[in-house]
Amino acid sequence: MVGTGSASAAAGPTLAMVAREAGVSVPTASKVVNGRKDVAPETRRRVTEALNRLGYVRRSRFEAAGPPRLVDLVLESLDGPGSGPVLRGVAEAAHEAGLEVVVSAVPDGTASGRAEHAWLDRAAARGSCGVLFHLPGLSPSQHSWLTRRRLPYVLIDPAHQPPPGVVSVGAADGQGAVTATEHLLALGHERIAVLAGRPGTVHGDARVAGYRSALAAAGVRQHAEYVRHAGPDGTGARLCTLELLDLPEPPTAVFACSDRMALGIHEALAERGLRAPDDLSVVGFGDLPEARWAVPALTTVHRPLAEMATTALRLLVRLTRGERLAGTRTELPTRLVPRTSTATRPGPGR
To answer: What are the E-state strand segments in 119-172?
Structure first.
């Protein structure tokens, strides 16, 4: 479960009781609770065991008097394609809540060992009320660390399924894929291929499932050779597109499960002296800025990343106040953005 602050200091064991149980002073127990490093390992062990035995629940710093009121936002990369919208959404919600945000990116080399907790230790040491993560996922060890510290956290658009009880905010990717495929069907396309990322991610699996669902609902035959998997960038998509074009019965449209894949399709078409939408209609997913700048401009599915981040911050505030949430997964709707990379199905002979 996600750790939350108690609604009242009287609702459970006090810090003084923990200190007495561990045989230390209240300030020393407070240092352990708040993740301070200036505590001897043996003392930290005794206090931690006392915390667990007594079931102490850390009081939320949102309930504590006086500034600073901090939350941490941890990104996979400061210059990633989704970082800008996430930063904007968190900043807007934090301003509304009167909070300060500390932004950091996960450094290289933190996948295992002691280093994977170093940035979490720093968040606890500076007194953060909670943490927002915009990462593909956290390791089991990191989830365990957060739970033991009773530090509230929310995942923004995780690529991997989080453990039960962990709060996350994402998009309705499956429905977005249905909308994208229905758009192509409405233009008269029936030979529709899909380019997806590697199987096993929340996003990719939902989008392929939505594609299949839309074809099945329309009574359109699904071709096994039209389902291709590639890496997240345009290189693999380019190669898959060339393979699709070489089929005896090539598709007339392709649904790409990311905008970067869709741009890789554009590259493959240019390599063959072809272009969208005259020779192949193309739909992307994500609505990155590059989608508007592409030639032709890319029809795509908009994912509300900024709104996801805003929602995540608001949920985090509720967690720190000890509120119970109706569910752990929140999905925001997607929408189709029609542009010029899709058109009616080419006539016979194409």
So the answer is: 131-134, 153-156, 167-171
Phi, psi of 268 (to 5 degrees): -65, -40
DSSP class per residue in 53-105 = HHT--PPPTTTSSSS--EEEEEES-TTSTTHHHHHHHHHHHHHHHT-EEEEEE
Q: Specify whether the CB–CB gap between 212 and 180 falls below 8 A.
A: no
Strand order in the sheet with 329-332: 100-105, 70-75, 131-134, 153-156, 167-171, 329-332
The secondary structure of residue 156, as a DSSP letter, is E
Q: How many CA atoms lie within 13 A of 169 on its CB side?
A: 26
**Residue of 259, 210, 262 whose CA lies nearest to 241:** 262
**Angle, alpha carbons 144-33-20 (nearest 5°):** 120
- 16-45 pLDDT, tens per residue? 788 888 888 877 887 787 777 778 888 888
For the whole prediction, is pTM greater than 0.85? no
